[in-house]
Predict the structure.
Amino acid sequence: MSEETSRAEIVVKGKVQRVNFRNFTKETAKKHHLLGTAQNVPNYDEDVAIICEGPRRIIERYILDLKKNVRPPIRIDDLQVHYTAPTGEFEDFNFERSTDLTKALGERLDCLLEFMKVLDTRLEELNHKVDALRFNRAQRFDKKKHSRHKN
């Protein structure tokens, strides 16, 4: 017996616009074989609305995946879910982009900037680790050199 299809209308609050979150929702939905859409909500809080259809237990796993596997700079502060009867209107999972070319380009540039910030932070962390390793190596070398001169 096949599982009954549900429709979840999800509103995600947090840092979810201009950070490639809609693409993340699409990748995750495709992994779970869900159909639907994600779109920016034009409100003050800049939320994202997701509508997906599939077996309810799969939708619940999808929501857990969204929360658990979110990537910086995305931040989910709250996620509200409302289940309704499915409409069968979707053939795939996609997200809607702005039809305003300037706004769409701005979204992509904002996304690029956020990823560059994350990359910069990670590079700084790596540089600190490399510097620490070099310092430790230099100290060991100096100790060996000093102990040779004693003998």
